[in-house]
Amino acid sequence: MDVSSCLRGPSWMVGSKRMRMASNFRWLLSTLILLYLMKQVNSQKKGTPRDFKCKTQNLQVWNCSWKAPPGHDGVYKVCIENRPHSCYQSEKGNVKIPRLPPGDHEITINLSRGLGSSMSKFLLNEKNVYFTPETPEILTLSADFPTSTLHLKWNDKGSVYPHHSDVIWEIKILHKENTEIIKLITHNTTLTGKDTVHHWSWTSDLPLECATHYVGIRCYIDDRHFSGHKQWRSSDSQTKVFPQDKVIPVGSDITFCCVTQEKVLLAQIGQTNCPLIHLDGENVAIKIRNISVSANSGTNVVFTTDDNMFGTVIFAGYPPDIPQKLNCETYDLKEVICTWNPGRSTALVGPRNTSYTLFESFSGKYVRYKRAEVPTNESYQLFFQMLPDQEIYNFTLSALNPLGQSESTILVNITEKVHPHTPTSIKVKDINSTAVILTWHLPGNFAKIKLLCQVEIIKTDLVRELRNVTVKGVENSSYLIAVDKLKPYTRYTFRIRCSSDTFWKWSKWSNEKQYLTTEAIPSKGPDTWREWSSDGKNLIIYWKPLPIHEANGKILSYNVSCSSDEETQSLSEIPDPQHRAEIQLDKNDYIISVVAKNSAGSSPPSKIASMEIPNDDLKIEQAIGMGNGILLTWNYDPNMTCDYVIKWCNSSRSEPCLMDWKKVPSNSSETVIESDQFRPGVRYNFFLYGCKNQGYQLLRSIIGYIEELAPIVAPNFTVEDTSADSILVKWEDIPVEELRGFLRGYLFYFEKGERDTSKMRGLESGRSDIKVKNITDVSQKTLRIADLQGKTSYHLVLRAYTDGGMGPEKSMFVVTKENSVGLIIAILIPVAVAVLVGVVTSVLCYRKREWIKETFYPDIPNPENCKALQFQKSVCEGNSGLKTLEMNPCTPNNVEVLEARSIVPKIEDTEIISPIAEHPEDHLEAEPENHVVVSYCPPVIEEEIPNPGVDEAGGTSQVIYIDVQSMYQPQAKPEEEQENEPVGGAGYKPQMHLPVTSAVEDLAAEDDLDKTAGYRPQADVNTWHLVSPDSPRSTDSNSEIVSFGSPCSINSRQFLIPPRDEDSPKSNGGGWSFTNFFQNKPND
Amino acid sequence: MIQRLQRGRREGESMSCLLAPLCLLNLLLSPLSLGAPISPAEPISQAYSLALYMQRNTSTLLQTYLQYQGSPFSDPGFSAPELQLSSLPPAAISFKTWHALDDGERLGRAQGAFLALTQHLQLVGDDQSDLNPGSPILLAQLGAARLRAQGLLGNMATIMTALGLPIPPEEDTLGFVPFGASAFERKCRGYIVTREYGHWTDRAVRDLALLKAKYPG
Predict the structure, then answer these.
(1) Which residues form the signal peptide (chain B) (predicted)?
(2) Domain B39-214, CATH
(3) Residues in B touching A378 (Cβ below 8 Å)
(4) Domain spans, chain B
């Protein structure tokens, strides 16, 4: 099978010319001609030999020649003077003579011709002999086409030359037969007297297949004679592109040629087109400079002709990098594993990939690395079988690829480079309860070294311990060590790793192996306490389970025995979960001993005396803990010889009560009691016992809390007694469980209030109407609250508190009883007053009956007495007689409307008698601005005391509207302000006035009050300068007399609904009663 | 030796694989089952299905192959129809000649071609493990193509048996392989083999379609 890459012609020739291999090269030695020419002065002018000269090709024989005289044939006789047998005959013009020693020699040449002869004489010296070496002969010229290398071989014919001499060879390489020298080099050798074959190689840039190459060689002495030529032709091949499949370094230059009969159109490498270099015929070449790295499958170079393509693949890569991180170690002292990193990628794969050879120089052995299909940058490794009795290894790792080779070396003492495998098959066996035997398997032959192994021991509680062990290496891979100082009945986890004792690397940790050590007898007896039962007949013995480090195994049962001088009672085989035994004893002095048993045996007994030594001087103390424990201290007592015991109990439990106990050595005087069972807010009893002469004496009794909390209930309280002004309250104790701390007192709150209205407002808000009593005497159980108002509802609240806080509150409403004396007075006084008024009225009416009758019920009514018809009487009389209801022409008046709303409303009825201008300045300032002139037909009411500010012409008058917004009188104003502006605040005045602020009344006001007792004019006339706008009409605008007192003239206003006052009796909610006059306001 | 095929580069076909591999397995195994069916319809139908399935993957194989050979093979639109292998019969045939073939000739030529293709695909796989050792995808596709070609061969043998045609003896079509072939020659012959595999699969689909019409089930 072949790729038919040529389309025309069934066969194909590579070269356009046949290579001519015929050799016509010759050795050409330069001739040393020693020409000694001594023409005799009187030599024959014609007919004598002349131009005598000698040359040599091999330095042994001199070839001398001369020019014969023309036309003279004969025999020459050449003689060397002064030398025997040194005449030579010759018929031609030359003669060969042996080499003559240095120096001048006289040569005579006699030409014998018929009858006569002629003779010539010459001087010959070696210096004048020419030496031309023989033409060199090329033995072989071969071509290595894949590498484009020519190999030249020739013989120097050194045996011809008598002595050693240096030779300079010049070699030239030509294309196109003697026309184009592409290479000319010189090559130096030495003649050794023997025939020697010389070699010379040359690598062509252009593949050799691309063109005919010629090689010439000559040697130089002083002649430039050329030797022969040699020619070759390339071998037949079907590929037409050269070179094929070449591997070259990245960055190098390379020439490709295509030998073809067709015209090449295009040459490209990869995707790049290249300029064509034309060679012989249609042959072309391309030159690639600085070639870049190839892909795995190489870089394609393709020549395209009209209808075909030819190509080759070039692999540009890198020579192998120096192997890095070469490291040799052994797992088992049987074979050495060497690892390395290949370094930079070569970009060459498959058959071109780097091959590695690991060579050990001492043994001369080597191993080869089988090429990886895919080059990786990961670690490579090679195994080298170790040799017996060899510890030092000198490894050389050679990396080789088509582009070159590199190597790195390492010298190792392999016994120091032991990196054992992971230990396997870990097994544990007991020796006893505190020691085990550990065995494992470690593959390898370590008989020559010691192993350093590390045992990791992890106890149940995750305490980690490492122990280093050195073991002697063995051949069969099994190892055994004892591990001691273990705890009985403890679960251990073992694992092992090993190294050599000349540490290099640890192996990986082996798998873990768990093991439970065997049991041992308990190291101590259980902690024991005893209590007498409440009836005093039985002794209850308590003991605590042994902690695991003292139990040394699983406790199966306990034995309890009570022994006195007389008898011994014992209870045996009490199973483990039971930690209490009861024995009926008479009150003798017994020694109780408790023994714990596990499968390994019995513990030493723990003993305790049953006797209790009475203590008369016993007080109950209080103690408070620290949240998690409670600190108990006591005085050191030298009499206490054994130990102290603190037992405690929840105080709410009945006797005998025992939660737990704690033993404290006899030399200590304090301890902190801690227990998971302690809860905050629970009262515990603590009993401190001292051990004295094998009996225990109660030293102290303490009640305490681990942490105090607030009570969870309020004290239950009742009202024992109420009177008109006091209440007696009584309450009960809070149970201890609900108190949750030491009671520090009570807080009693009371306030006026009823169940519906004053619903439990915050008591702590500091309201002033709540009264608080703090009862710190916790033994007090009653409280009398005095100074209360009668028949008033009170809200009572009681709460208890501890140091932990306030408890909840309990409240109650109580109504005090009525005050009967006050009630009687309250009834009697109004009745008496009413009677008295009635009597006085009756008397007055009786005595003035005539006037009354005349006035109110006359027999003939007098119209003049009719107030209704008396309208503006005085006006009518004063001005125009009886012109009642006469309407004057309407004269427009100016009415000023004062819009001082923020000021005027303050003017209220109380100001009538204490006219106060609140803001006189404001008023004055506002006046000119706020006067609004209104065309108005006024009811003309003129003041008697004219105001200078009012027009006297009477055509206009000013009216000020005063908007009364608020009916409430603010606080009384200081007197100074009244004086400043006596008339400023005047305006509308109600008729009646209650003397609220009597202290500030002035005399004028009093006068007015006196005059107007009963019905009262609307205002202090003197202060008025404005008319009321409420009078719709005026009969006479010019009238100077203003009539007051007539309902027709003045429209008076009274506010019939009085303002609500917080202080009014209504606020008591109980309706008006006389008792209100007698009771204090709550704020009092 | 000089063979020219005026045939354009195959255009990309649908690469979707609609048949499940199990189906393929079934098709491959069926010729091996004992008791060959008397009617040729079933083996023709099976062979036709397999050929259709192969047809969907030939383009992928060719593209994958070229992609790993570097430029100019991997250039888009690469085509070198002038490259031929003397050991591989070309699939191109004039329509008239093709139509005039009788069943035995038709199946015999396809049989011969796929026999040659299986051997050539093996050779190309070996070549590529030297040139592209780090390309498991390409090597796997070449292996799969060879397996399918073998499967089709088996199917065709079954058809020929069913039709009572003589099965041509298996012969070594490769002959003496020039093991010293240059990398470029290997790349070229791989290209020719994968290309011709596609051509022959196309032709087999038409062959079998014709037979299917002739021997309806």
Answers:
(1) 1-35
(2) 1.20.1250.10
(3) none
(4) 1-36, 39-214
